[in-house]
Amino acid sequence: MIDYQWTSTLIGLLIAGLILFLVRRDHLHGPYAIWWLVVAAMVVVLGAFPRLFDTVAPLFGVAYPPILAVVLGMGLLLIKMLTMDLERSRQERKLRRLTQRLAMLEALLEKERRNRPAQKEGGAGGNGDQVW
């Protein structure tokens, strides 16, 4: 029978290996990879030294040490969700600005097209080529 410490340590190492594989394949980018590598390192450390909670929990006033792991896990999940929402907000703001710039450029091109009717019809001074 395998000790649960080895199982937890093995799970942490598998997570770290998976993260490195995803980074090498360019499926996971820098800041996200660092976050998940920290999580994998915590799983390895807490798996290798499960008595760590027994010594740390009384320092935080937690009477039942396994609850500290649950509270820390939930806290990390909340922080991860907050960072994901911040990143999504930043991407939406960037997308909105790019859309506005594209609309302004299209309006400017349309205005230029209206100001040059002779070129559009292939008249004098123009060769009839479109900018597009």
TrEMBL record:
<feature type="transmembrane region" description="Helical">
    <location>
        <begin position="59"/>
        <end position="79"/>
    </location>
</feature>
<keyword id="KW-0175">Coiled coil</keyword>
<feature type="coiled-coil region">
    <location>
        <begin position="88"/>
        <end position="115"/>
    </location>
</feature>
<protein>
    <recommendedName>
        <fullName>DUF2304 domain-containing protein</fullName>
    </recommendedName>
</protein>
<dbReference type="InterPro" id="IPR019277">
    <property type="entry name" value="DUF2304"/>
</dbReference>
<keyword id="KW-1133">Transmembrane helix</keyword>
<keyword id="KW-0812">Transmembrane</keyword>
<feature type="transmembrane region" description="Helical">
    <location>
        <begin position="6"/>
        <end position="23"/>
    </location>
</feature>
<dbReference type="Pfam" id="PF10066">
    <property type="entry name" value="DUF2304"/>
</dbReference>
<keyword id="KW-0472">Membrane</keyword>
<feature type="transmembrane region" description="Helical">
    <location>
        <begin position="35"/>
        <end position="53"/>
    </location>
</feature>
